[in-house]
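Sharing a chain and its predicted structure for anyone who wants a worked example. Both blocks are below, sequence first, tokens second.
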Amino acid sequence: MSETTMTLPRERSAARLTGFVLFAIVLAGLVVAPFLVYPIFLMKVLCFALFAASFNLLLGYTGLLSFGHAAFFGGASYVTAHAVKVWGLPPELGLLAGVAAGALLGLVIGFLAIRRQGIYFSMITLALSQMFFFFCLQAPFTGGEDGLQGVPRGLGLGIFDLNQPLAIYFYVLAVVLIGLFAIWRIVHSPFGMILKSIRENETRATSLGLSVGSYKLAAFVMSAGLAGLAGGLKALVFQFATLTDVSWQMSGEVILMTLLGGIGTMAGPLVGAALVVSLQNYLATSAFPVTVITGLTFMVCVLLFRRGIVGEIAHRLRRRG
């Protein structure tokens, strides 16, 4: 056996060990964080981190740029809020209803959009998302411009009072970790390998006999369902669902989060979401417009980190290795 052949497994084992150690450190930090930082802020970061990670599953690993991902996030937010407030469902069933709504909406929009490629695909998702926005504006069960307010959090697993800050925080953390694990498992499965091959060379994937359209639609539905999980969590945390969640600005924000962190990386969307939410939170009372600061931050990251923050760091570490 050659020296190179023996080195590869060692490098992979070292990379896995490093990843496990980093995950353990981050998890320990998240467990301690609510005792040091305002829990509502942390939960907002977690919800948007899951939202950005679900979008990255579509853009970073399949190569599909959607301009209408807010439809799944906001639509699930409405469904979860309505299910918990009006139907009286427990939070778990409310979240599942939101995931199902996001996946179903993703199936409809994806079925229409994947027939086109490139900018045409992106514009179709934007147009259909805007149609859904006006539906939410007119539909009687959404509350119109007032939205759905006073959404009860209920009891987590029928035991934990989610009105307690620590209880709702660890509940959200557990759900987000489950969602992120699902994304990690999808990416590192044979299905995920096929998605990457479609991203790299769709024509070659088609020539190998793969049903590219079916795989792209499946990825779109999975991404939409996970975005719905993030939207449902946000409705429980803030106890309301509004038109802001389905607006095109929300779609722009998740694109920004993913690009800042680094597309095609697991940690990139999480870092991007934390950065954008932190800017919005801590500069909200500033006299300087938050959007200008966010735009300047994006420009700096594009100039210095062309692959995103995490993507650029990983690239430079690989080069040194």
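Comments welcome. The beta strands are 148-149, 155-156, 160-161, 240-241.
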